[in-house]
């Protein structure tokens, strides 16, 4: 009898403890749903308008998932070390996750291992050199850069269906240190079937790598580096003046903007009757761009240059999506630490003067914040 | 409650939007009826009036523009250049204005694609308010389109302020045919990350609806913006109604469970405090029940329990005392029984001996008669031993010898007796009259009726701290089936006098020296019997004797 009584009391106590544990867990969980994770976004020159869509995407995901986001204020990086040290500082300051677009892809395996060991890591824009990531501790969210290169090549081919043999081509890249740049150039060269001598020059505005790759792909191509640390426009202007080309393909937003601004310089020279350039006039006597400009861009400035006809065709990756997915993946990883992160590919669109104000394209191109 | 709030909030927002749109219509009306209608465009320039009206309302406007029916720009405020590639007639606000000449038309939000500013790289999201207007060119009417590009940010800010109120509840704005004007997650929707059922919402009349969208139940409140037919839709997921309630429920469960646990704990504490003395009392009683009658009863706890303990202890003491009395009484009784048994033998023996003596005197065997009487006297002296029960083994053996001497005469030396006694055992103590009954047995049931010469051997020796006295005869022996019962009360031993004597001796030794001592009988039919007396070796001092007299080997 006494034994039965003890058993009943023990059962009641066990049931009560169980309900305490469950209700405490439920209470903690309901409050933990709004846990304040901090996600730091580290990208080069973060105040540049080229990040507007990316930033809006990242912030929208942060709002949707109820996390704090810190879009770290940065200027141009002197090198990969500076970017990595900022990331390290953010982790030390308590960042739970890092969303970053690294400016260098090679030799980063140890850094990635180190960062992903301390915080959740979402890489954007470009792939980087990493060890095998069995645990899925980081992920890369980027467009298919090779296909972007191919799309740029196709845009050139569309307007020159008779062939490129008589045309001079120049390439402008901010850096050739990332896999994304290499993939884009490979895509362009594959599509244009570039052989030795087809591409006149390539201007690399910064960074240190890429010469070997470019020489291997197109041996006769001249490579110009910004050894004097000049402004991008000034360098492009100088090289174009000495080595004019018919087509310029810019690999990124900064290069595209600088290449588009080159036409402003040519306009000025024309107005001041300078003979530095060969001018191209339209039927109404209006000065036309003396080179066709193609490239990848995202900023409103480049959209505007496209609108004004300085850029023939522009590839626009879905930066909103890239920012959104990167933060979304980081938060999911923070919420479910055992779930591995998986890479994602974001879309891109080919925009030109004709389609840029179409209903779906304008929603893609102009965020309401702009 | 929440629905009421939604209705109220929605009504306020609708009012704000209506008010804003009304103002925009008034601006358009003012421009048309007060300026355009009074103007001859052949000779007059509208730009000054347009700029004035723009300046007065520029907070909510992006631009004013008046276009000819072919899409050429007549005037704009702020002053701007029309883009070469603007293709105005193809823009929807333009064609809509001509589609219905009487009305004002509000477009969906779009990026303004009209002007170019070499110094400004901005693009504006606008809602175009367009209307077909009649322009007076020197008395000849021409058609044109007056465009008021409203700043989309104004509507956006109105909607954002509403959506800041609650993170789960949100409000969006669509046209009457379900085209999106504002949604807090417009970008996510265009990317396909988020979905909204605009088509269904566009079909709703004003009111409250419960719908299931993508597996989520939600309350949808719809209010229509007058003139435009735009619908303001408030969406509240039903789980939102229960969210706060759920946390409260968990909290109540937690508090209730904690309270119940605390009560059980306190209850157990009090119960333990009350029952602990009773448990101890119970445990002590259990110990006693297990046989440890000398353990103490627990006395403690509350007054009642203490009283109970004391009463039980007194009862136990009384029981113990009574038990001891009973044991003593029983022992006394046993002793008296033994004495009675002992006294039963003596008269018979005495009668036989005296009969033998009489027979000897009658036969004039005086010397033998004297010997018999002397032996008898010695036998009785040892028997009496001044009333002592414990005597030296030497006296006991002498008593046995006296007895055997008498019996040998009586039985005419029908048997022989051998003594093999170690002298040292003679100085030890024994219970008196233990050898004689064994000898009596050996004679009467062993060698008395033998055809051959009977032989009885009495052997005494010491082995360590023990003394052994063996009475061995070569008589008929005891049947093996009876042997195990000889020293018991069992009837199977068929006691006809012999057994009684042996049991008597066995129990007397055990009573005095302990259970490990007593008799051991070994017998083989037709071979003989050996009865061994096992005693402790206790030196024959007066002190030891007195101790044994009082109680036994231990007492």
Structure description:
Chain A has 370 residues and is an alpha/beta fold. Helices cover 45% and strands 18% of the residues of chain A. Chain A has 12 helices and 15 strands. In chain A, helix 2 packs parallel to helix 11 and helix 8 crosses helix 9. Chain A is elongated and about 110 Å long. Helix content of chain B is 48%, strand content 22%. The chains are: A alpha/beta (370), B alpha+beta (555).
Label this structure with key terms.
heterodimer; A: 370 residues; alpha/beta; seven-stranded mixed β-sheet; six-stranded parallel β-sheet; 45% helix; 18% strand; B: 555 residues; alpha+beta
Largest β sheet strand count, sense and barrel closure of chain A? 7 strands, mixed
How many runs of DSSP E, i.e. beta strands of chain B?
A: 20
Uncertain segments of chain A: none
Radius of gyration of chain B: 67 Å
Placed side by side, the strands forming the largest sheet of chain A appear as: 8-7-6-9-12-13-15
Short description:
Helices cover 45% and strands 18% of the residues of chain A. Chain A is of the alpha/beta class and 370 residues long.
């Amino acid at each position: 009898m006494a034994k039965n009584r003890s058993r009943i009391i023990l059962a009641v106590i066990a049931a009560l403890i169980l309900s305490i544990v469950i209700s405490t867990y439920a209470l903690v969980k309901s409050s933990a749903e709004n846990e304040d994770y901090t996600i730091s976004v580290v990208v080069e020159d973060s105040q540049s308008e080229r990040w507007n869509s990316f930033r809006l995407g990242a912030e929208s995901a942060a709002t949707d998932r109820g996390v704090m986001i810190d879009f770290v204020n940065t200027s141009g990086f002197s090198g990969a070390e500076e970017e990595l040290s900022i990331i390290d500082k953010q982790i030390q300051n308590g960042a739970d996750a890092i969303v970053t677009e690294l400016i260098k892809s090679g030799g980063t395996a140890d850094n990635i291992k180190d960062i992903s060991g301390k915080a959740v890591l979402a890489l954007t824009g470009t792939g980087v050199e990493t060890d095998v990531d069995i645990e899925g501790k980081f992920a890369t969210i980027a467009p298919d850069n090779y296909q972007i290169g191919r799309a740029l090549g196709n845009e050139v081919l569309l307007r020159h269906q008779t062939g490129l043999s008589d045309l001079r081509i120049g390439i402008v890249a901010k850096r050739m240190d990332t896999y994304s740049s290499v993939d884009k150039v490979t895509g362009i060269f594959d599509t244009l079937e570039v052989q030795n001598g087809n591409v006149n020059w390539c201007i690399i505005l910064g960074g240190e790598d890429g010469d070997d790759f470019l020489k291997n792909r197109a041996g006769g191509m001249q490579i110009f580096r910004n050894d004097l640390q000049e402004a991008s426009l000034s360098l492009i202007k100088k090289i174009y003046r000495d080595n004019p080309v018919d087509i310029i393909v810019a690999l990124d937003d900064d290069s595209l903007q600088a290449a588009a601004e080159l036409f402003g310089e040519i306009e000025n020279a024309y107005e001041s009757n300078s003979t530095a350039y060969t001018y191209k006039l339209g039927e109404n006597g209006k000065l036309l761009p003396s080179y066709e400009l193609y490239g990848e861009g995202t900023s409103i400035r480049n959209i505007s240059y496209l609108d004004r006809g300085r850029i023939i065709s522009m590839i626009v990756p879905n930066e909103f999506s890239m920012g959104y997915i990167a933060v979304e993946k980081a938060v999911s990883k923070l919420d479910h630490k055992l779930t591995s992160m998986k890479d994602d590919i974001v879309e891109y669109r080919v925009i030109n003067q004709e389609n840029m104000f179409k209903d779906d394209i304008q929603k893609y191109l102009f965020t309401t914040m702009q | 409650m929440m629905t009421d709030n939604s209705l109220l909030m929605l009504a306020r927002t609708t009012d704000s939007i209506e008010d804003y749109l009304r103002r925009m219509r008034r601006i358009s009306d003012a421009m048309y009826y007060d300026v355009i209608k009074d103007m001859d465009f052949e000779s007059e320039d509208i730009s000054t009036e347009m700029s004035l009206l723009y300046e007065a309302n520029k907070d909510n406007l992006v631009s004013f523009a008046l276009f000819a029916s072919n899409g050429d720009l007549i005037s704009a405020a702020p002053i701007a250049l029309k883009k070469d590639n603007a293709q105005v007639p193809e823009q929807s606000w333009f064609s809509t204005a001509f589609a219905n000449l009487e009305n004002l038309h509000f477009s969906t939000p779009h990026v303004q694609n009209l002007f170019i500013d070499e110094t400004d790289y901005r693009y504006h999201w606008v809602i175009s308010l367009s209307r077909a207007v009649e322009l007076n060119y020197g008395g000849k009417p021409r058609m044109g389109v007056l465009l008021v590009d409203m700043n989309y940010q104004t509507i956006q800010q109105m909607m954002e302020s509403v959506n800041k109120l609650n993170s789960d509840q949100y409000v969006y704005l669509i046209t009457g045919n379900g085209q999106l004007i504002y949604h807090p997650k417009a970008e996510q929707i265009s990317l396909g990350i988020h979905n909204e059922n605009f088509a269904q919402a566009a079909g709703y009349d004003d009111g409250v609806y419960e719908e299931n969208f993508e597996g989520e139940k939600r309350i949808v409140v719809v209010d229509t913006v007058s003139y435009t037919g735009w619908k303001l839709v408030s969406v509240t997921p039903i789980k939102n109604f229960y969210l706060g309630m759920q946390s409260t429920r968990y909290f109540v469960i937690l508090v209730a469970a904690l309270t119940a646990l605390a009560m059980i704990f306190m209850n157990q504490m009090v119960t333990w405090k009350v029952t602990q003395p009773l448990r101890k009392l119970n445990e002590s009683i259990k110990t006693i029940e297990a046989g440890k009658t000398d353990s103490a009863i627990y006395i403690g706890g509350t007054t009642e329990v203490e009283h109970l303990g004391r009463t039980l202890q007194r009862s136990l003491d009384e029981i113990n005392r009574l038990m001891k009395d009973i044991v003593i009484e029983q022992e006394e009784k046993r002793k008296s029984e033994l004495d009675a048994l002992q006294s039963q033998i003596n008269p018979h023996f005495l009668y036989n001996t005296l009969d033998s003596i009489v027979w000897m005197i009658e036969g004039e065997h005086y010397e033998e008669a004297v010997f018999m009487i002397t032996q008898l006297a010695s036998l009785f002296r040892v028997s009496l031993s001044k009333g002592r029960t414990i005597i030296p083994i030497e006296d006991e053996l002498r008593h046995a010898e006296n007895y055997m001497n008498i019996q040998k005469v009586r039985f005419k030396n029908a048997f022989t007796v051998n003594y093999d006694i170690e002298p040292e055992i003679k100085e030890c103590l024994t219970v008196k009259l233990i050898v004689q009954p064994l000898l009596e047995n050996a004679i009467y049931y062993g060698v008395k009726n033998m055809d051959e010469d009977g032989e009885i051997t009495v052997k005494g020796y010491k082995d360590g701290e023990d003394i052994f006295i063996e009475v061995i005869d070569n008589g008929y022996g005891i049947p093996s089936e009876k042997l195990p019962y000889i020293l018991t009360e069992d009837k199977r031993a068929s006691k006809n006098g012999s057994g009684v004597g042996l049991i008597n001796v066995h129990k007397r030794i055990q009573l005095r020296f302990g259970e490990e001592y007593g008799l051991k009988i070994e017998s083989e039919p037709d071979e003989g019997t050996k009865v061994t007396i096992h005693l402790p070796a206790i030196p024959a001092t007066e002190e030891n004797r007195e101790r044994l007299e009082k109680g036994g080997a231990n007492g």
